[in-house]
Amino acid sequence: MNRDSVGVYGSKVQGTTPNIDKLAGEGLRFEHGHVSIAICMPTRAVWMTGRYPHNSGALGFTKIKPGVPTLPETLLENGFTTGILGKTEHVVPSRKNAFEYRRDRSEMANGRSEELYGKFAAEFLARVKRDDKPFFLMVNAHDPHRPFDNRKPADQRKLTKETSEGTSDDKKNKRKQTDYPAPSRIYQPNEIVIPGFLPDLPAIREEIAQYYSSVSRADDVVGRILVELEKAGFAQNTLVMLKSDHGIPVPFAKTNVWRHSTLTPWIVRWPGTVKAGTHETEHLVAGVDFAPTILEALGIAPMKGMDGRSFLPVLKGEKQNDREFVYTHINTIASGRSYTMRSLQGKRYGFIWNGWHDGKTLFKNESMSGLTWKAMAKAAENDPALAKRVKHYLYRTPFEFYDYGNDPDALNNLTGDEEHAKLENRYREELLKVMQKTKDHETDRYQKALNGR
Q: How many domains does the chain have?
């Protein structure tokens, strides 16, 4: 989910996320919150370990190294009950016992049923109440990942028994679904606004309408989970965090390191500690900081080897130094291809190193499988400006530098621009420092690239 798809973060499309907006009004929202890697499985490995991919072993769709501690296991050791809804194959899948309670997407209409998320959240919370133990529940909505919503009216949808009754344990019902439950709001192509990093073409407008309908269904899930938390009596003594795992799965967002690839809606509600209605604009926080923050909030000793650090002081309204930059990555993607990217993001500017660029290698990822890329590639045949944009996506350049304050969609690469040379050099040097400090395995190659070799 792109951050700017959320109402409270300035969505230009009306009515997208009323439940998320309400949550933000009851807590704090970060203006400068980023995931550390804009791919679903490796970003969750960062959240669960507090380590960058090169230090956890989870460079892509790979396992966390055996000796690396994880957040759910640490909480289990400290008397917590742990549960997970959805994305079970992407959250510490090699640690089978990390979550005592689990429900996979196949049990929740491919992770798209508000009703079934609510049912299983209530079941988990009832168990927690019975056992009288503290809990950690990770809820992963599968929207707005592909497949996007088909935008059919609710009464025209053909739902399988699995969808309507949640009986996925019956093997007879594990057949492929044709439809999923309807979101509370179905968007039409003329209602939506195309992201600024994409051209406005009819096929793209259709796909973005499907995407926004999926955003609405994700918001429905959020609202239902919060209702179940309230009904169970836990709303006032539970810390709730909401994040997306990466930007929209279309070209120029997911599986990349531009600002809109990693910028996430990050909301924290914590009654009695976090002041309601806070818009935190000063500090930068990243996915690698999630586990350290949770552990410090609970008074549990930090896990060994974490790269991130707690932003608990920020949640309490205090100032925290050395939060000028976040460090973001791409390594290996779902296909198994390797596309080394590193970025240093500040509040306004961002620098990128494309370590895979050689002028010959083509970029290819899952986000190119929908309507958007096909429409762009076709239109580029008769549009020189779009053809240049398509070529950049496919081949890149060694370095990119953007003034996101004036160019939020990263349309104008400022590398080599004399006016910005001093600032860009600082970002280049700061990126090298953080790579050296974290023992990034790509440090030598980056240093050689800086030296023009």
A: 2
If 0-12 CB within 10 Å is exposed, 13-18 middle and 19+ buried, where does residue 89 land?
Answer: exposed
Contact 302, 292 (CB under 8 A): yes
Distances (CA, A) of 120 to 75, 83, 101, 108, 312: 21, 10, 10, 9, 30
Q: How far apart are CA 2 and CA 335, in angstroms?
A: 23
This prediction has a pTM of 0.95
Residue 299: CB atoms within 10 Å: 7
Measured distance CA(246)–CA(264) in Å, rounded:
7
91: its two tokens: 């959250």
- Which residues, in sequence order, are CB contacts of 322 under 8 Å at separation 6+? none
- For residues 118 and 100, the answer to whether their CB atoms sit within 8 Å is no
**272 and 355 share one domain:** no
Q: Domain limits at 386?
A: 327-450
Give the span between the Cα atoms of 265 and 10, in whole angstroms: 11
Say yes or no to pLDDT of 168 above 60. no
Question: pLDDT tens-digit profile of 264-309?
Answer: 999 999 999 999 999 999 999 999 999 999 999 999 999 999 999 9
Q: Are residues 331 and 416 in the same domain?
A: yes
What pLDDT was estimated at residue 419?
96
Strands 338-345 and 135-139: unpaired
Averaged pLDDT for residues 113-137: 98
Q: What is the CATH number of the domain that holds 205?
A: 3.40.720.10
Share of the chain above pLDDT 70, in %: 96
Measure the CA–CA gap between 76 and 358, rounded to whole angstroms. Answer: 46
CB atoms within 10 A of CB 364: 15
CB 252 within 8 A of CB 197: yes
Q: Tokens representing 42?
A: 């490796």
What lies within 8 Å, CB to CB, of 12 at 6+ separation is 4, 193
Map residue 331 onto helix, strand or coil: strand
- pLDDT band of residue 357 (cuts 50, 70, 90) is very high
